[in-house]
Specification:
single chain; 245 residues; mainly alpha; 0% strand; transmembrane helix; membrane; transmembrane
Length: 245
């Protein structure tokens, strides 16, 4: 309990200091810091989702975040008086922080887009169109057209990326497309067990029907052969009787 009170007291003592430090930033620098924080919120969401799609680490955005943190610490080291630096030094490092976070966001967005497309393909692989139409009609009617639209739009956002002139609206639109695809992936994932079971039953029915039809064809062939043999025998007997008469 005493430790908690000491921690709270320390927080109260530090907060005014931190507030004062931020007050030393220019309005322009505070805006950059705000945009960086906003972009990092999107970045964190993307990083967690990327881990869901693929457990392997994706190094490019991780390296970008590491570099961003390094520049952030350089800025704070000046604000805390741990190293020399002026307003221009703070500005340069704040800009660098945003650029790294911005690039990391696009790295994850591109990475996720690739794995989302692969995920959808893998979940529906081996499922016939007939099964999907019967049990998941909204897939072809609504979901697939939206998926194709998203996959067509996303490269346009990627092409519009300009580190020299970053645009948070582009990141937000790109992020919204990825979130929409994530919802569709979730719908497909929920339906997958039902589709797989239905496809298995459909194939079993087809195999049984083909087996039955094959047996019928084989029986018809034997019947034809038997009638042919009988006909030949009867024809031979009749021919022999005619010759004998």
């Amino acid at each position: 309990m005493a430790d908690d009170e000491a921690f709270l007291q320390q927080e109260l003592e530090i907060s005014p200091i931190v507030t004062g430090l931020h007050d030393t930033l220019s309005e322009r620098d505070r805006e950059v810091l705000r945009k960086t924080t906003e972009c990092y919120g999107i970045l964190k969401d993307l990083a967690l989702y990327a881990e869901e799609l693929n457990s392997e680490s994706f190094l490019p955005p991780i390296n970008e975040v590491r570099d961003a943190f390094d520049h952030l610490m350089r800025m704070y080291s000046v604000l805390f008086g741990l190293r020399d630096g002026d307003g221009e030094y703070i500005k340069e490092n704040l800009d660098a922080v945003f650029r790294h976070v911005y690039r990391a966001s696009f790295d994850y967005l591109d990475y996720i887009r690739i794995y989302q497309k692969d995920y959808i393909h893998r979940r529906l692989e081996g499922i016939s169109q007939q099964t999907i139409v019967n049990l998941f009609p909204e897939y072809y009617r609504e979901i697939l057209p939206e998926i194709e639209s998203c996959l067509e739009d996303i490269p346009l956002y990627k092409a519009s990326k300009d580190i020299g002139k970053p645009d948070m609206e582009t990141v937000e639109r790109y992020h919204a497309k990825v979130l929409k695809l994530r919802d569709y992936c979730a719908q497909i994932n929920r339906m997958a067990p039902v589709l797989i079971e239905a496809e298995s039953n459909l194939r079993l029915e087809m195999e049984q029907r083909e087996k039955k039809e094959s047996e019928i064809r084989r029986a018809e062939a034997w019947k034809y052969l038997l009638f042919t043999i009988i006909g030949a025998i009867i024809g031979g007997i009749i021919g022999a009787l005619v010759l004998a008469g």
